[in-house]
Amino acid sequence: MATQSFKTYFGRNSRQGLWYVPLLITVVGAVILTVYTDDFASPQNLSNLLSQAMPLIIVAIGQMIVIVIGGMDLSVGAIISLTTALLALDAPAFVLVPAVFAITALIGLVNGYSIVKLNVHPIIATLSVQFIVVGFARILRPVAGGSVPDIVVSCVAGTVFGIPLTVFWAVIVLLLGWKLIHGSRYGLHLFAIGGGVSSGQEDAAHNFGISDQRNVILAYVCSALFAALAGFYIAGRISSGDPGVGETFALDSVTAVAIGGTQLSGGIGSLHGTLFGAILMVLLSNGMNLANLSAFLQGAIKGAILLLVVSLQSRKKMGL
Amino acid sequence: MRSLLKKLVVGTLLAMTAASAPVLAADVWLMDGVEPRPEGNATVEAGKFKKDGPWVIAMSHFGVNANTWTVQTAHEAQGIADGDDRIGKFIMLDANFDQAKQVADIEDLLAQNPDALIVMPVTSTSADAGIQKAIDAGIPVVVHTGRVENQNFTVDIQGGAENFGKVMGDFLVEQLDGEGKIWVLRGLPSHPEDINRYNGLMQALEGTSIEITQEDHGSWVYDLGKKLCETFYLNDPNVDGIWSSGADMTRACVDVLKQFGADIPPITGEGNNGFFGQWIKEGYPSIVAEYSPSQAAAGVRAAVALLEGKELHKHYIYEPAGWNIEKAKKYYRDDLTANVWWPTELPEDKLQELYGKK
């Protein structure tokens, strides 16, 4: 039993993926940076690190939900941009915040419906929606600027009993993600749907009585809502709206999920792997900044390390 | 004797006072063409940020690798920093035109306790929070090559994008005698520099009968500029003038027109070696709007001046007049590649190392 449990979490063919690979590299990287740089372990920098990682962690959790079912959501970056643009409109927070989440849920619905009902490939569907959403964001706010309601900034930049609010964000978002992915029947259904997709038996989950279409649509709605949450966090950090601020998040979130051991073919992955994947990506940027590596070199080094981490996790068969 | 002694004492005191007097803001040279803003300017008092060296100077660059101009700005800043022994450490981070990354970059820079912070903002708000944190920590902030909404910075040097666009627009108005059809090749969509340059063009066109028949964003790069001009030409080849927001797009558009065997109408350019070579060879009507990458060197110079305790103005502007072909000929270097931007402060050995054809 113990052996089985160990294999479930750590085995090479675990359904949770090789989540400990990014964890190990993150720990080794953190130790090296602590030894070789002056400021890495300072409270200020560790706080910065968490704040910088938080939007990617949030959006990567949503991205993981759709990747587990064998999909992909390339509209998350545009949703982030739209969220900041909406929050910077001249209206009270009690109108803006619900509106943001209602609109983004609708975007997720459009993504899911296009994929499930119109049979459009997830990459094409979400890429098309991305263009539409970016267009709306640029109509709302052609240039970065404006200001978001004070309460949005307070929810992100404040402290409670001296503890940065980012810590509470981390706890809440991870608990929510954990419940959705590993602690609910819905999460189990996601893995079942993805497992079928990755093994070429797309109807497998459906044949076991799982409503795959509804669950897939819901997965894209979840992804959009997590992206909106990340957009909310970013809007609080930059205190303004920017129609281009989310541009890098679509690919960064896919990368973080892949580094975390989630298979892009679906059916395998874990929340903790995604968390470590996102942290590793931010740690790389932060570490190279502190190590004063040339701005010309940073991109190349980051790409090489990411390729190495993902290649360490290649696998040939489905998980346990 | 007593009178002579008195004169000597007074003279000595006066000389000492003069020697120890702070350098006035008007005396600080940042770069050729950079001047204090004539209206609504404040002064950063002498000695406010004075510190003994060696200094740590941090710089957040909006995007080093976007194009050849941005690459050169990074070299210009690094060059000035490397040549000053009092700068113990110069840290430059590349935001890669990502607003969220610039926020993170500035946090990472401030975590390293710099003595001064230089910011080239991605957008007008991307550096606001970082600037405030630096100012709150008593760190002087120099902003250049892009405006920010947070006006709490210490010094800013702005390249006058409206002036840039207007210099080009005025040239077309003059060449076309106030009427005709023009194409407009813009820079990066939503980038403040692009919008302000375009606003400058609009100011120049006001009250004229010049009509913009085709307009799109070429993002200041050659290949996109080429695609745009090909599309414009195939759509309607009748054009009397071309307003191009960047030299790489100008070169691309001239190449397209040559490819179609069309005459080259008046077209605007920039201080780029590749453009100069083409302009001098082809001789088409053009003008250069100056926008030197040495603004990045001026930013470092301003940071150094603040740490030296010199008095500076809060706002500096950089609004030079346009160049004609005779001036371009003085700068053009056949032994260097198309990627050099003029004027530059890079020394000859660095120019050869980075841009030498051999």
TrEMBL record, chain B:
The keyword Signal applies. Gene3D superfamilies: 3.40.50.2300. Residues 66-311 form the Periplasmic binding protein domain. It is found in: Periplasm. Residues 1-25 form the signal peptide. InterPro entries: Bact_Solute-Bind_Prot2, Peripla_BP_I, SBP_2_dom. Pfam families: Peripla_BP_4. Keywords: Signal. It comes from the Bacteria. Belongs to the bacterial solute-binding protein 2 family. This is Substrate-binding domain-containing protein. It comes from Hoeflea poritis.
